[in-house]
Amino acid sequence: MKKAKRIIGMVLLILGGFLTVVNLITLWAVLTVRDVDYRLGSAVMVLIFILFSVGVFTLGWRLRHPRNKASDPAQERPAPAKPVYDPPKPRKLTAEEKQRQAEEKAQRERLWRVLAEAMKKARREALAPWKDIDPEEAEHIARWESALAGDCAIERDYLVSAVNDQGLDGLYDHTGADWFILGMDSDLVKVVRLYAEVDTYRKACEVHDVNPKHTEDHTLYGLMRFTYDIRFLIVTRQDFLSLGAEREQCLALCREHDLHLVLPQSGGVFLDLDSGRRWNVYIAGTYPGSADDAATYGSLSLDWTDPKPGAPRQDDPTRRQYTPDTLLSLDISSAERGPGARNLRFDESLLQWRLTVQLDEERLWFLSVFVDEDGDLKEFSLDYEGAADSHYEFTDEKAIRDKLYRPGDEKLSFHEILVRYVKGYGGNALLNQIMPYVTAQFHYD
């Protein structure tokens, strides 16, 4: 609207200016005429045209340059008054209040001293098995550096600054945890034994109050520091299964030296392959103080969830049911019909096995299990084969097992549990249970 007014104003300005100039020239010409009566009549008419052209010019100027309305002082909103903080005047404490505060402060200091002494005592008792070890005899830094550069290579990952866990001293340790990743070509058995030697040396140094010797190897330097007692070594399931007959011995060393072998899961969760505990790494927004600092410098924290009592460990055979060997050993008949009927095939293009299990009588709901040729379980898929096909992929078998848990499920395979659930509640109910864990879904008309 404003743009249209400005255009119309420009046109009127040009027209009014042109008419004014023409009328002024006409007036000059009329005034030079000798006939007095004609001159006066024509002059009056020309003056009227001049006034009209000036009016047109003025209107164009107003449209082109509108005047701002002056604000009415009476209608102006008064500026808000600036808040003034008037701190309360400190009240003088009475003698009884001063005495009570002094007693409370002294009580807090006594509790802190008692707690610190209890932690030192518990720490000394926890390190008692290493008090007879001479740090000089336990030190083999040159050999450790060579091993870490060879088949015992591990990489230091991130640090967790707050751990709500009981350390070696039996008390809650909030200092943190170290995380290491097993190298691609490393021998897990040798790595665990190497860690046990280094850990023995660092604890002997702590017992005898000596500093570990210097090393240029960053990973070994971190292993020899005794800041953190909780250590995690991230491995793959294939690495863990490769332990074979030496598994129990390695797990015993890990328990003795508080080393956790963990398998990465989705969502920052790590599965403890010995205890079955699930460690959850998350960002804590409490350091160093303000919300902005927490967003920028937020530290990692750690908590855990223990497995249900009586549930099998993750390395138990009942949980390792979907491998190429176990799939090939299944007695699958082409005559199988109804819920639980199975079909197994190998996809040569993807180099993976696919086990399909029928879940309902109507042949609408199926479970697909995908296992690669190396034996790693890739994913599950809940499939709906109707007029329009739908596929819901997920990997968190344990969470769904726990959600559908009934006594005796430890002896059942995963697809047997799903067949039972669909029989009782239907395929849509199973889909509702699985949806929170779905990682991808595909729909086809």
In short:
This protein has helices at residues 2-31, 36-64, 95-126, 135-138, 141-148, 188-207, 218-224, 237-241, 247-256, 291-297, 324-328, 397-403, 414-425, 427-434, and strands at 154-160, 162-163, 165-166, 172-173, 177-182, 230-234, 259-264, 269-272, 278-284, 299-305, 342-347, 352-358, 365-372, 377-385, 389-394, 438-444.
Please, could you describe this protein's structure?
41% of the residues lie in helices and 20% in strands. By secondary structure, it is α+β, with helices and mostly antiparallel strands. It folds into three domains: 63 residues; 178 residues, no CATH class; 121 residues, no CATH class. β3 and β4 form a beta hairpin. α13 packs across α14. The longest helix is centred in the N-terminal third of the chain and has 32 residues. The relative contact order is 0.06.
Keywords summarizing the entry:
445 residues, alpha+beta, six-stranded antiparallel beta sheet, 41% helix
User: What is the strand tally?
Assistant: 16
Portion of residues within helices: 40-55%
Describe the largest sheet.
Answer: 8 strands, mixed
Q: How widely separated are the two ends?
A: 51 Å
Q: Which strand order spans the largest sheet, edge to edge or round the barrel? A: 1-5-6-7-8-9-10-2
Rg value: 42 Å
Q: What is the 3D shape? A: elongated
What's the SSE pattern? HHHHHEEEEEHHEHHEEEHEHEEEEEHHHE
Structural class: alpha+beta
Question: How many domains is the backbone divided into?
Answer: 3
SS element count, helices? 14
User: What's the pLDDT, averaged over the residues?
Assistant: 78
